[in-house]
Every structure is written in structure tokens, then in C-alpha cells.
What we know:
- Helices cover 25% and strands 18% of the residues.
- The chain is α+β, with helices and mostly antiparallel strands.
- The chain has four domains: 41 residues, no CATH class; 133 residues, Periplasmic binding protein-like II (D-Maltodextrin-Binding Protein, domain 2), CATH 3.40.190.10; 137 residues, Alpha-Beta Complex (Dipeptide-binding Protein, domain 1), CATH 3.90.76.10; 180 residues, Roll (Dipeptide-binding Protein, domain 3).
- A hairpin with a 5-residue loop joins strand 14 and strand 15.
- Helix 14 packs antiparallel against helix 15.
- The protein is globular, with a radius of gyration of 24 Å.
Amino acid sequence: MNENEIRNLVAEVKQGTLSRRSFIQKVAAIGIAAPIASQILVWNDVAMADATLPYKPAKAGGGGPLKLLFWQAPTLLNPHFAIGTKDQMASRVFFEPLAGWDKEGNLIPCLAAEVPTKANGSLAADGTSVIWKLKQGVKWHDGKPFTADDVVFTWQYAADLATAAYTTGSYKDIKVEKIDDHTIKVIFKAPTPFWADPFVGSVGQILPKHHFGDYSGAKSREAPANLKPVGTGPYKFVEFKPGDLIRAERNLDYHVKNQPHFDTLEIKGGGDAVSAARAVLQTGEYDFAWNMQVEEEVLKRMEASGKGKLDITPSGNVEFIILNTTDPWTEVDGERSNAKTKHPTLSDPAVRRAINLLLDRDSIQKFIYGRGGVATASFVNAPKQFKSPKLKYEFSIDKANKILDEAGWKKGADGIREKDGKKLKYVFQTSTNAPRQKTQAIIKQACEKAGIEIEIKAVTASVFFSSDVGNPDTYSKFYADMEMYNTTQPQPDPERFLNQCVSWEIASKDNKWLGRNISRYSDPEADKAYKAAQNELDPVKRAALLIKVDETFCEANVFLPLLSRNVVNANVNNLMVDMSGWDVTTWNLASWYRT
């Protein structure tokens, strides 16, 4: 299918002779995934689809309590500091973006009055600016009006390097102008093909200027609202016990008619994935449990109880291992794993290549994750046109041994390989849950057969994924040789996802370890390709540039992808939820209801 054929299909959609769904199915056949197909329609002035969950309640309230389990407990409620998914989800209960992403990759207005298009005059034809019209009549939870001043302030707050926000990458290279109280203009430095990043989805939540205005920059961590949020969302803050409990109540002034359905909200943290699954699928004690990282056979037994069901949503998320090429055991400038240092042994490409060959991805997928993931060698797996066709995986203990032999790593009397007095002994850390510990055990066993000693370390999930800068065991500090976790792709486009591979996002003490590049590894060619992709309007050329970034890190064996992950949650049978693989679980919490 060539460009003209795609244009003809777009014309049919505009004329009403071809449905949106049929268009998406036709272009999917040539490798254009649904989210990108939706963006093609928007660029050609076809309106976005409605939200994916029809809302049936005829009035707000009356639904009683909604009880959620996040076994990785939230520890803060400022979305711009929320490096962990658990904190992003909790923040989204109270704060909202201008728009979010549904499961089909459609952009759904939230605090925006409409989605910008060329037809409504909001999208510049040259890709250098976008105008957002804001919904009128929206109030903050304290009764103050939501205006363009809050949006402009959010940009200033996140773009300020002294704030050290997790979201800085989405804001530092743009300008935002207030046109009037309910209209703002985002100006990009250059033509920007993926304009729906600032103020959208998990990175786009708007902060009230009157609560955060005195706490930007170096004072940002002192804001009381970091723990006592005042937002525009469907539920108002009542209580927060970090690492344990969130309580909220229905926002009586919510800006969407007849929403939300529930009167109160409770988010209970802690425990583990198995107990969370049991509390929904077997006992029905809770309505919903997030992230069912539980072995497949255990989930099937629980589902047989009949109280609840799994909700499985495709996504761009990936379970992967990072090999630390910096030194996690030597402190430089007040931090370990400093980018100025080199790892004593993992800086050797041969060692990293050997470890990649010792990962039995097929067994991990088949016997541990089941429906929860598909084995992969690529960091980016969706949409399809951004997945590298080159990256392949292989499991071979023999080849790993041969590579290490040829690189001069000889086995000592204890069976552990060494060279120049340095041994291949590593601390391999991840969060505490059964699938991850079983994965660690499989990898440890294979590594031992190649003369590599692995010390397994499991950190409580609420600690490992914490945004607390004083915590030494967070994944972003990376004080270990290897670590494994699931990283979420927050948009149906991998540009922001891949900023985990650029030099200017390296996590460090200076940015309070909120930089997106946890690995500390960098490559000038990856930086160059990424910057070029940011301004490349040709979709084929842009995809090739982003694929190059992915390939650079995977072929260097710094990123060792294991599984392309599905979003797997559990809910009781009478709870209607709206999940998205391109946004956080709570992206459309206001529309949940009980039948």
C-alpha cells in the first residue's frame, strides 16, 4: 500500500463510506498500528473517536465505595516527581492532563475543550505549534477556577531544571503562551511530528499555580501539596499515609456530567501481587487490583473461583534487564554509579554479550508470565513499525562460555571467571514478587554454568520504585551491577519512551535521580538519531531513526529486553473499567462504574 492509497482510505473515512475501525484494520495489514492510524486521521482532519467505555449511570454518586489494591504502595502524590508507575497512577486520581490516551490510541479530551486538529485551526500545518482550548467552568478542589495561568505555570515548573522533575524532558524545549483565560499555545523549537506530549497523559497533569507557585525550583520538594493534593480530578483528597493508604471522596463539582459514580475511594498499598489477586479474584474483598504479576498457573486457579476476572490490555511496556557500565561500588562526587566511572567488568562488551546469551526468554515467558508477556529482544515493541526487525534473541550457554574464553576470562579454582584480578561476580536486584524472583533464579542458574556468580537481591516494591531521593535502594539510583523491572511506554509513540537512552537524561545526584536514563550509558550516535527523530516529519524516516536508538542500546547489550508486557489487572465481575496500554491505569477513573 503506497501513500496515495492511504490518502484514498482517509478520504473514504471523511466521506463516511469507510468506518474508522475498517481504516485501522486496513492499514494494520501493512504494519501501521492503531495508535498511529488514529494520529493519521487526526492530521487529516478526521475527528477522534469517543472514549472506549460507554458510561451508563444517569447521575453522579450513589455507587458507594470503590476499593483498589496497589500492592506497590504510592509514596508521593505530585505527578511531576512520580518516577514510579504507582505514584503516577495515584497522582492521576487527583490531577488531570489536558487529554489522555485510550486503548485504541485515540486522544481523549480531559481538561481541554477539544482535541486540536488542523480543521479547528489548532494545529499548525508546519508542525511548529499547537493551540489548546481549555474547558470552561472547571474548578480546583478548593473552589478556585482552573485557567490558562495554571497550564502556563505547569510548563514553567516542569521546565525549570532546579525543580528536577521527572517530566522535564517534555517541557524544557518548548514555549507556552497564554492567549486568553481558556486558551494556550505551545510553540516548538522545530517541526514536531508528535506534538501530543506536553500536557498529555501521564506527563501532562496540570498543577494549580496558587498551591505550587511558591514552591518551584529548588523549593519544589517542600510543597505541602506534594502529599496533600488539590487537583481537578473526580475524587478529592481526604487522607494519605505514604506506603500504605489513600482515601478520597467524590468531587461534587466534577466537570463531567454524571461522573464519578462512586462516593468514596480507597487505595490500599502494600502486600504482594498474589495476595492482591486473591483479594479480588477469590474473596471479592476489593474491587480492583493493579499489576497482576503472578505466575500463570496461580492466576488460572484464582479465576476459577468466579468472583472476578483478569483485564488484559496490550501495551508498549517491556520487562528488561540493565547491565551497569558504571561503578556501583565506588562513590564519586557524592554518588555511586556515577557516569564518570567505569564498571570493573561489565564495561567489557564481551561480558555483556555473554550474559545476554544466558537469558532463557522462552522459558521465562512460558512457565512464569503466560498471558502477561511475549519474549522479545527489542526494547521497543509497539507500535509495530517502531520495532527493530534486526534484534533477535538466543539462549546458548555454550556460546556464552566460548565468548568469555576468547575474551580472556578464565575460570578459577572456585569456578568463577576472572581476569587481571577481577572476578565476574554481580549483585542482581529487582523488586520483590514471585515471577521476578523465579526469573532471577533461572538467570542465576544459567550464569553459574558459564562461570558467572550472581547474588540475588530483592527489594520491597514500594521502596524499589520510590521517588524518595534519600532511599539508596531505588531502581533509579542503581546501586547494583544488574537490575530488572518493567518500564511503561506512556504514549502510542516511542519518542518519549526512548529518552531513557539519551545522554542528557542520565540519572544523577544533580537531578535527584529523576533523569530518565537509568543505565547511565550513552552513545553519540543514539543522541544524534534521537534529536533528528524529534524534528523528522516523514513517518518512515522518523521510525528508522528511533529504531536506531533502540538498536544502539540493545546491540551494546546494556538493555537486555526479556518480555513485551501486557497490562494485566484484576477486577470483580460487576465493575466496569476503562484500561489503556498507552496511559496509566487510572487515566479514566471517573468513568468506572458498578453494574
